Amino acid sequence: MVNKLLLAGTALVSVAMLASPASAQIALGDTLQLQYLFPDTSTVYDTQTTVFTGAGTTLPVIYTGTATFDSNLVSIVQNNGWSYTGAAFNGVRITDLSNLSAFNGWNLLPSTTMTGFSFSSSGGSLFVNWQGVQTFTGAKVDIGGAVPEPASWAMMLGGFGLVGGAMRSRRRQAVSFA
């Protein structure tokens, strides 16, 4: 009886893990919007929109450079050095208009080379504020979400299968009462 309960519990955990997405991400066909906000978050200075067609989809960032998108990465690269004024907000808001939860749980990545800026995520959008920052050519901001590798999922499922198979093939011992 205990083995059956353990097997049923393992199966439920496996199904629950497969049913929940590993991380939020941008999907093919999603509409991405990049807005340059200045001098505060309620004033839109420039808007660029594109459809995500896969890794390498780009949008220009006014005064700054280029934003490149992958399903679980946004990389903003400075095409030239720039000195941003010290307004309340001087930067970009990036939104996936097709999926407002696409950026949930995204954070700055260690590959970011720019310093002095602020980053936040709110209401399905990513905000990068360069207020008062002096940048250099090639400086970049990398923002992404963690997605487990397919090999990790395969090993986990294989492990559950082995445990289930071992439990199923275990011989039952006859119980005798004297």
Q: Quick summary of this structure?
A:
With 178 residues, the chain is an alpha+beta fold. The protein has helices at residues 2-19, 150-169, and strands at residues 31-37, 44-51, 57-61, 65-70, 73-78, 91-96, 107-108, 118-122, 125-129, 140-144.
Features:
178 residues, alpha+beta, 5-stranded antiparallel beta sheet, 10 strands
Strand order of the largest sheet: 2-1-6-9-8
The helix content is 10-25%
- Given the helix and strand composition, which structural class is it? alpha+beta
Spell the H/E element sequence: HEEEEEEEEEEH
Helix segment tally: 2
Termini gap: 22 Å
Q: What number is the mean pLDDT?
A: 83
Low-confidence stretches: 15-22
Biggest sheet statistics: 5 strands, antiparallel
Shape: elongated
Q: How many structural domains?
A: 2
Which value, in Å, is the CA radius of gyration? Answer: 24 Å
> How is the quaternary structure best described?
single chain
* Percentage beta strand: 25-35%
Instruction: Let me know the number of strands.
Output: 10
